[in-house]
Amino acid sequence: MINVLFFARLREQLSTDSIEISPIENMTTDHIRQQLAEKNETWAKLMQADSLLVAVNQQITDWSHSVVSGDEVAFFPPVTGG
Fold it and tell me: How far is the C-alpha of 39 from the C-alpha of 17, rounded, in Å?
C-alpha cells in the first residue's frame, strides 16, 4: 500500500488527512494525482491545481517520480511564511 497524506488547507478542503491506495506497476506521483482527481469534482479541482506540491518519503519531488508500495506521498499547497 501507499500512504497518501494531505496537509494544510488541502486537508481541510478534502475532509481527510490521509488515505491508502494500492500501487500499480510503474506508478508515478502524477498517476496518484490523476487517480485522486477521479474521485469527484472537489478532488479534481484540488488535485489539478497548478500550485499543488508533492513529496515522496518527505522529499519534495516532481510529478514523474516513481512510487512503490511502502512509500509515503504527501500533497500540500505552497508554503508561505511571514
Answer: 16
What are the Cα distances from residue 73, in Å, to 39, 47, 49, 57, 66?
Answer: 17, 13, 17, 6, 11
CATH class of the 2-76 domain in this structure = alpha beta
Closest to 52 measured CA to CA, from 33, 35, 17, 77: 77
> What average pLDDT does range 47-72 have in this prediction?
97
Average pLDDT in the chain: 94
Domain assignments of the chain as residue spans, ordered by start: 2-76
Answer whether 0.85 is exceeded by the pTM. Answer: yes
d(CA 75, CA 29): 10
Distances, alpha carbon 17 to alpha carbons 4, 50, 73, in Å: 8, 21, 12
